[in-house]
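Worked problem 6 (solution included).
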Amino acid sequence: MKIKSPRWRALTAGLACLAALSMTGCDQTQKVYAESTKSMIGTCHALLNSEEFDATSDSRPPVDCTEPHTSETYAVYNLTGELTKGLWATRRPNQQQLKALTGEICPYNKIRRYLGAAVRDASSNLSIVAYYPSPESWETGDRSVRCDLTSYTKAGEAPVSTYSLRNSLKSLGASDNVRECYTFDRAFAEGTTTSCDKHHQGIAVNAWLTLENKSWKQETLSNLCKPYAHEFAKAHKIKNRKPTGLLETNSENDALTLKCALESKQ
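Solution. The predicted structure is:
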C-alpha cells in the first residue's frame, strides 16, 4: 500500500540568523536557550480569538485544562547568548525575528515524553507554538519562552480543547484525538494519515523501515511489521488485531518507506 501523510509541522520553525536582521556576528551553531526552572509545564491557556492566539506574547493567567483552551505548555526555556547582550539587552526583537527561533528553542524530543508515548506510539494533529516576553517584560530582563502544544486548525481559527494532553498516549481511547491512525483503500493500495477520533482502518505503529525493492506483496509487508505491531499491542493489551504494512514513496527520489499499523475494529 502507498500512503500519503502530512509531516509534523511547527507553527513557526527554523533558526533565522539575526545577523541578517540588524545583528552582527551571529553564530547559528551557538545555543540560544537554556532550560527554565519556571513551573509552567502542564498549564493550559485560553487565547480564544485568532489575534491573541497568533500573538508573540501571552500574559494572561493559565486556565484549568478542563476549561476551553487553545494551547498547553510542555516546556519552558530561557533565551541566552546574543539575545541578552548589546542592542537586545533592553530592546526585544520583533515578532518575525522571535518566531524564527521557535523551531530551534522548542524541542520535539520532549513532546513524546510529555504525551506519555511508549516507543511504538505515534501522535498526530499537533503543532508547536511559542510565546515570548512582552516588550515591557523584556526590558526588565525576562527571557522566558513558553513552548506550547496545540491542535491543527483551519486558517484564521484558534483551536479550542477541553482536555489535557499530558500522558494522553498512555492509553487508547482517551488519546484518539492526538493518536495517529490510517485510512486505506486496499483496492487502490493507497492510504492517508488521520487522527484516531476520525474514521480509520488502522492504528499507527511507530516503526519506519526503508525498502529498496518496489515489488512487495502485502503479506510480506505485514510480516515485516509484525514484531513492531506486537510490541504496540502488548503495551496497550490489545489482542486479535492484524498488522498491516503501508508504503510511502518519497516524491524526490522515489525511495520507499514502510510504515506499520495495527488494524482497528472500526
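Discussion: Residues 170-263 form one domain.
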